[in-house]
Amino acid sequence: MSSTIATPFDTTLIPGVSDRPGDDPIFSLNAEASQRAATGESVLNATLGALMDEEGRLAVMPSVSRAIAGVPAEVAAAYAPISGPPAFLEAVTRDTFGTSPLAETCVATATAGATGGLAHAIATFLERGQALLTTDYFWSPYKIIASHAGREVEQFEMFDDAGAFHLQAFEKALVELIARQGRALILFNFPCHNPTGYSLDEAEWEGVAEIVARCGTEAPVAFLVDLAYAHFGAPGSESWVRHVERMAESAQVLVAWTASKAYAQYGSRVGALLAPNRDSDERLRIANALGYACRGTWSNCNHLGMLAMTELLVNEELRTAVEEERAQLRRLLAERVRLFNTEASRAGLHYPRYEGGFFVTVFTEASQRAAERMRESGVFVVPIRGALRVAMCSTPAAQIPRLVAALEEGVTAGARE
After folding, report:
1. How deeply is 12 buried, as exposed, middle or buried, from its count of CB atoms within 10 A (0-12, 13-18, 19+)?
2. 171 by DSSP, 3-state: which?
3. Does residue 96 contact residue 257 with C-beta atoms inside 8 Å?
4. With 0-12 CB in 10 A as exposed, 13-18 as middle and 19+ as buried, what is 299?
5. 247 C-beta neighbours (distance < 10 Å), count
6. Residues facing residue 133 across a β-bridge
7. In the chain, what are the domain boundaries?
8. Is 190:353 a contact under the CB 8 Å cutoff?
9. Dihedral, CA atoms, 343, 346, 26, 391, nearest 10 degrees?
10. CA of 116: how far to CAs of 75, 120, 136, 413, in Å?
C-alpha cells in the first residue's frame, strides 16, 4: 500500500525553473503528424529539420556508416580527451577553413553537436545577464540555450523593405548593445539560415564584415557562425570564410561545426567550436576556458563519432565517397528548392530569397491560424512570429504542389479571420 507524505512545499525546484515548458513545439507537432499518419491519414510533415529521401525515409550516407562500423570497439569504448582528440580537431579545422590563414591560429574544442558549441560560446564570451545579438528570425532554441545559461537574446530586424539583409538595423543594434553592456556576442546562422533559408550575398557579407571589424576596435566583440546547414548552400556560399578573415583582424571569430546535417548523423551529437586568434596567449586562455566548460558540462563527447568523423575527413578514399554521397543529397534538395520557388512564385507567396538549405519561411501575420488551417488538411508546418517555417528537407518533390496549395490556402484564410 502506498501513501503520500504531506509536506509544506509545492515543489523542490528552484523558482526560476519551476514553470518551464515540458516539450519542444516542433517535436510536439512532429508527434501529432506521426500519430495521424499512423492511422492511415494522408499527412505531409514539413516540421523536422532532417533530410528525408523521396520515399519519406531518413536519408543516410553509406560511407559514414562504414566509417562508424570500422572503428575498433575497444578504441571507441575508451574515454575521449576532454577537449576532443587532436586529430579530430585538426581535421575539423581544415574542413572549416581550408587554406585560410585562420586555420593556422585556431583553437578547437569538441562539443555535443553545434548546439554544444553555441552553449559554450554563450557561457564563455558573455557575462551573466548580458545578451547576445541575432536576427529577429532565429532558431528558437537559441533563446533556451541563452536562458539556461543566465543570458538573454536581443534581435534586430533581419530584412529591409526591399527584402535584403538589413545592414543598418544590424549596425544600430550592435552599437547600442556595446554601449549598454561593454561587449557583444553576435550569432549568425548563414549560409542557409534557419528558419528563413536566406544566405547572405557578397555585398551583404562585406557589409557585415566591415561593421564587425569596426566595432571590434571599440569593445570586445565575438562573431559566432552557426554552420549547421552550410554544406547545402548554393555554389559560392562558402565565401563566408574570406569575410570572417576581415572580422578576425579586431574581433574574435567563432565557428560552430557539426556532423549532424553535413554527414546526416543527427543522433551522434558530434560537433566542435573553433576560435582562431593570432595571439598565442589568448589562444591558450580560450583553450583552457573551453576545456573547463567541457569538463563542467558533459566531460567528454562521443568518442566513436569523433573517431569516425576523423577518418571521413582525412582518408582520401572515404572523403571522396562522402562528398559524392553528399552531392547526391544536395541535388535532391536543390530540386525541391527549384520546385518550391516555381510553385510559390506562381501562388504569390511572400518569402525571402531561397537558394538552398533545409528550410524556407513564408511570411504571414496570422501564422498560428494559417498553420491550424493547414493541419486540418493534413499539412504540418511550424508557426513562428510573423511566418510559417517549412522544412523542405523533409518534403518529397512530388508533394511540393500540395504543400504550396496548402500554404496559399492557409495564408489567405488566416488573413481573412
Report:
1. exposed
2. helix
3. yes
4. exposed
5. 25
6. 154, 186
7. 24-61+325-416, 80-314
8. no
9. 30
10. 24, 6, 22, 40
The Cα–Cα gap between 259 and 175 comes to 34
80-314 CATH fold: Aspartate Aminotransferase; domain 2 (3.40.640)
Q: Identify which of 186, 179, 177, 180 has the alpha carbon closest to the alpha carbon of residue 213.
A: 186
Give 135-139 contacts, CB < 8 A, sequence gap 24+.
Answer: 135/188, 135/189, 135/193, 136/385, 137/193, 137/195, 137/196, 137/361, 137/384, 137/387, 138/187, 138/189, 138/194, 138/195, 139/189, 139/194, 139/195, 139/226
Exposure string for 112-139, b = 16+ CB within 10 A, e = fewer:
bbbbbbbbbbbbbbbeeebbbbbbebbb
Could you list the pLDDT tens digit for every one of the 417 residues in the chain? 455 566 676 788 888 888 887 767 788 888 899 999 899 999 999 998 899 999 989 999 999 999 999 999 999 999 999 999 999 999 999 999 999 999 999 999 999 999 999 999 999 999 999 999 999 999 999 999 999 999 999 999 999 999 999 999 999 999 999 999 999 999 999 999 999 999 999 999 999 999 999 999 999 999 999 999 999 988 888 899 999 999 999 999 999 999 999 999 999 999 999 999 999 999 999 999 999 999 999 999 999 999 999 999 999 999 999 999 999 999 999 999 999 999 999 999 999 999 999 999 999 999 999 999 999 999 999 999 999 999 999 999 999 999 999 999 999 987 776
CATH architecture observed for domain 24-61+325-416: Alpha-Beta Complex (3.90)
Query: Is pTM beyond 0.90 here?
Result: yes
Pairing of the two strands 221-226 and 184-188? parallel
Q: Which long-range contacts (CB under 8 A, 24 or more apart) does 141-149 make?
A: 141/24, 141/115, 142/118, 142/187, 145/115, 145/118, 145/119, 146/122, 148/119, 149/119, 149/122, 149/123
Angle between helices 316-347 and 62-69 (to 10 degrees): 140
